[in-house]
Q: What sequence folds into this?
């Protein structure tokens, strides 16, 4: 990439959990001025920063320029980039979190899973440049203020609804200077459907199998057949929604997953830890798009119905609706 990194950039991360602190630390390493909004980890992060372990990129301690309880506390002018990396779950109003820190030229960057998740933000902030990013990484919080980066790290992103701006290129160059690879795409919504073919299938199956890892999901012919059927339905919905995916993609994803070390999806980890799951944006939005486009999706409908049953059971065990601990 020949673009000059935006190394004087001011970046504010909303939701500095695993993803926010990991990519924030890379932007910091590349010289940007990186601040974070923390919720439960405010005290430990403001005292000691984030300790991040990574065999691939090296261990580091990331001390944010400002550690804040709310975006409205951000000082020194508006950020150039506002990175949103909260889980996209019911009850989290992303627009309300974003609004207080937004300056007229602030670019909003979503690093979150799910399909069709941008419209809500684009509609709330129509004059703002919006970058939509997909993370191909395995990173998790292991204790307050502690994050483990296990594997991968690449980001794919572009502007929503389409295109790649100069500021997106400069943001990519900054992240690359921090140590990861970025792929820029003119068609980020198609890239989201591509990732949904994996997440929309493996994530719910991993939960419905009681936190199965990918090795167990693909360990027998029945599991592989279920995965392939669900993937074909995601492909049919994506095509009907105007985002045709390569015909061989399902096979490539299955083989790629089989070759990689067994892995528990982020949704399986949320399920095990009794945290809210991103069912609606990872699977529900694909199901709703299928209904909207008139595509027959019996497998996805079944996975979705089962996920809702599991969510209701967890909610009733936790005592009240939505009370699965954040
Ligand atoms: N982890 C991974 O390997 C991958 C994650 N993703 C996606 O990235 C996104 C982020 O995931 P991840 O980083 O793992 O999630 P985490 O739970 O680790 O981090 C989410 C962060 O958002 C904070 N947050 C949530 N709601 C609020 C709020 N109302 N106000 C302030 N802070 C809030 C949480 O604070 P608190 O500490 O209080 O809960 C936490 O710090 C998700 O969409 C996920 O699917 C995509 C690919 C891989
Ligand atoms: C597969 C992965 C880790 C992306 O790299 C993911 O998105 C998830 O587990 O939800």
A:
């Amino acid at each position: 990439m020949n673009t000059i990194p935006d190394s004087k950039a001011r970046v504010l991360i909303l939701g500095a959990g695993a993803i926010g602190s990991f990519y924030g630390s890379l932007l910091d390493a590349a010289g940007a001025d990186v601040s974070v909004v923390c919720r439960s980890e405010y005290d430990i992060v403001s005292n000691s920063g984030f300790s991040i372990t990574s065999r691939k990129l090296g261990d580091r301690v990331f001390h944010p320029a400002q550690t804040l309880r709310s975006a409205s506390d951000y000082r020194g002018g508006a950020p150039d980039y506002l990175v949103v990396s909260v889980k996209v779950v019911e009850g989290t109003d992303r627009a309300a979190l974003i609004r207080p820190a937004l300056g007229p030229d602030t670019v909003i960057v979503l690093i979150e899973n799910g399909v069709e998740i941008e419209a809500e933000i684009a509609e709330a902030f129509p004059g703002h440049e919006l970058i939509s990013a997909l993370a191909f990484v395995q990173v998790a919080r292991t204790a307050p203020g502690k994050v483990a980066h296990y594997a991968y790290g690449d980001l794919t992103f572009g502007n929503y609804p389409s295109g790649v701006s100069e500021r997106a290129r400069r943001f990519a160059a900054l992240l690359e200077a921090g140590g990861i690879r970025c792929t820029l795409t003119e068609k980020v919504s198609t890239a989201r459907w591509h990732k949904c073919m994996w997440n929309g299938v493996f994530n719910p199956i991993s939960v419905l199998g009681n936190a199965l890892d990918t090795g167990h999901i693909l360990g027998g012919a029945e599991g592989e057949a279920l995965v392939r059927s669900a993937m074909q339905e995601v492909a049919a919905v994506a095509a009907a929604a105007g985002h045709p995916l390569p015909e061989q993609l399902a096979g490539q994803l299955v083989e790629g997953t089989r070759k990689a070390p067994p892995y528990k999806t982020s949704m399986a980890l949320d399920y095990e830890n009794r945290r809210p799951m991103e069912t609606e944006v990872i699977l529900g939005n694909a199901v709703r798009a299928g209904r909207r486009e008139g595509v027959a999706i019996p497998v996805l409908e079944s996975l979705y119905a089962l996920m809702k049953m599991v969510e209701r059971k967890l909610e009733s065990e936790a005592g009240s609706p939505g009370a699965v601990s954040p």
About this structure: The chain has twelve helices and ten strands. The CA atoms of residues 313 and 319 lie 10 Å apart.
